[in-house]
Amino acid sequence: MNDPRKNSDSEPTTHFGFQNVPESQKAEKVAEVFHSVAAKYDLMNDVLSGGMHRLWKRFTIELSGVRTGNRVLDIAGGTGDLTRKFSALVGPAGEVVLADINESMLRVGRDRLLDKGVAGNVSFVQADAEKLPFPDNHFDVVTIAFGLRNVTHKEDAIRSMLRVLKPGGRLLVLEFSKPSSPLLSKFYDAYSFKFMPLAGKLITNDAESYRYLAESIRMHPDQDSLKAMMIEAGFERVTYHNMTGGIVALHRGIKP
Amino acid sequence: MLLAGLFAGVELGLNRVLAMDSTALPRLARLSGRVIAVECVAPPLQLFILPSASGLQLAAQWTGEPDCRLRAPASSLLRLATSTDKTRILHSPEVSLEGDSAALLELAGILQDLELDWEYELARWLGPVGSQLLGSHLRSRVNWSGQALGSLRLNLADYLSEESRSLVGQREADARFAELDRLKLALDRLDARIERLAQRPKPIV
Question: How far apart are the CA of A171 and the nearest CA of chain B, in angstroms?
Fold first, then answer.
C-alpha cells in the first residue's frame, strides 16, 4: 500500500495548505508567506478578524495566570501582541522571550515593541518551535498563538514546549479550529476562500498567502485532535475553550 | 466575548484618562503584580483589576488567586466608586473584603486623586492658543456654574426652612435633637432609679 505521506522520491511529505509538499520544503514555504505579509500583518489581522483577534488574545492572557517574576515564552510571537501584555504582567523581576522562526516577523515585532517602550524584561530569539533552544524546566508559561498550524511536526513542537516548561507550568495554544455550528461553518468557508484572498490582494497585493492561511486552517487538527496530541505529548489537565463559535480555540495543558 | 470586548473598551478609555495625570501611572507601578478581584453580588459579575506601570488591565476572569477580593452588591460598589468616605462603605455589612485591602485602598486613592491635565490633551488637537482660550472660557463657565449652584442651594434651603416653613432649619433641628438627647438621658436615669428602688429590700416590720 502507498503511504500518502511519501512522494515518488520517498521523502516524507506534509501539507502546505491543500498541497502536499516534501517536509523539508514546508518551513521554507511558510517563511515566504510570512516574509510577504510581515509589514502589514497587524492591519490584516484587524481587517480579517474584525478586531476579534485582540479579544482572543485577551482571553489567552486571562487564562495564562502570569504573575510578577514569571518567565514566559511567546512562540511564534510575531508582532508581539502577547509579549507586550506579558511584559507588563511579569514586571522587572520577570522575563518574556519572544520567539519566532521568521526573521521578518521577529524584526517587525522587535521594532514595534521598542517603539512602544517595551524593553528591559523582553528578549527576542529566532527559534524553531520543534527545537527550542532553551534549557529544560525553564519557563512558567509557554504560549503559541496562531503559529502551531504552520509547524511541520506539531507533535515534536508540543514535546519541545513540554520540555522547556517547569513542572506545573502551563502551555496555551491559541489557534484556528473547527466551527461548532454547520451554518457558521458554511459562512466561514465562504468568508475564508472568497473574502480573505480578496482582502489580501487589495491590501498586501498577495492573495496567495491568504489563500494558504485559509487552507492551513482547514488542515489544522480540530479541537479534540489537538487535545489528544497534547495529552499524548505528556500534558495533564488539558482543556480547551471555543471562541467565536469554535472558529478559534484556546487549548491549555499543565506539565506534570 | 461580549464582556471581554466591553472591558477592553473601558480599559482603553481608562488608561487614556490615567495617562493625563502625571502621578497616576508611577503610583500604579507600585501596585504592579497585584490582582484585585471585584465581585458584584447582584447582578452577578466579576472583574479582575491588574494595575501596572502602563495603566490598568481589566479581565473578566483570572487564573490564580487574587491578592484582594471585594464582594458587594452593585449599589454599594457604585457608592464606593463615588463616595469620598470609602472606609465607611467598606465597613458596611453587605460589603466583604478578603486579602490585602491596602492594595484596593491604594488603587481607590489613586483614582480619587486624579488631576487630569486635559488642557495638554486639548493642546495637541487645537494648539496652545486655542486650548488656552477654550480652557479659560470653560474654567470661567465651570466657576460660574459652581457658584450659581451653591447660591441656589443656599437660597432654596433658606426658602424651605425660613419662609415656607416646610422644613426645619439645621440649627433648629440641632437644638431639638439636643433636647431629645437630654430627655432620653433623663428618662434612662429615671428608669435606673426606679429599677434600684424596686430592688431595695423591704423593711422588716
Answer: 13
ipTM of the complex: 0.72
Tally of CB atoms within 10 A around B102 = 12
Residue A1 pLDDT more than 70? no
> Who wins on pLDDT, A36 or A256?
A256
**Chain B contacts of A54, Cβ < 8 Å?**
8
> What are the boundaries of each domain within chain B?
2-112, 118-199
At the topology level, CATH places domain B2-112 in Nonspecific Lipid-transfer Protein; Chain A (3.30.1050)
Query: What contacts B120, CB < 8 A, 6 or more positions away?
Result: B20
CA B43 to chain centre: 20
Size of interface A-B (CB pairs under 8 A): 48
The pTM score is 0.74
What tens digit of pLDDT does each residue of A187-210 get? 888 888 888 888 878 887 777 777
Nearest CB among B8, B35, B53 relative to A58 is that of B8
Q: Which of A68, A114, A67 is nearest to A93 (CA)?
A: A68
In tens, the pLDDT along B66-122 reads 899 999 888 888 888 777 777 778 888 888 888 888 888 888 888 888 777 777 778
Query: Using CB atoms, which residue from A62, A88, A170 is nearest to B54?
Result: A88
- Chain A residues with CB under 8 Å of B4 CB are 55, 58-59, 62
B52 neighbourhood in chain A, CB within 8 Å: 88-89, 91
Class of CATH domain A49-178+221-254: alpha beta
Cβ-defined contact of A65 to B62 (cutoff 8 Å): yes
Q: Could B61 and A62 be called an inter-chain contact, meaning their C-beta atoms sit closer than 8 Å?
A: yes
Query: What DSSP string runs through A95-155?
Result: EEEEEES-HHHHHHHHHHHHHTT--SSEEEEE--GGG--S-TT-EEEEEEES-GGG-S-HH
Residues in chain B with CB shorter than 8 Å from the CB of A65 are 62-64
Is the separation of the CB atoms in A88 and A116 below 8 Å? no
Asked if B33 lies within 8 A of A88 by C-beta distance, the reply is: no
CA B119 to chain CA centroid, nearest Å = 26
Residue B30 CA to residue B52 CA, distance in Å, equals: 8
- Inform me whether the pLDDT recorded for B202 exceeds 80: no
Is residue A104 within 8 Å of A34, Cβ to Cβ? yes
So what's the pLDDT on residue A10? 65
Cα B125 from chain centre = 33
Q: CA of A65, closest CA in chain B: separation in Å?
A: 4
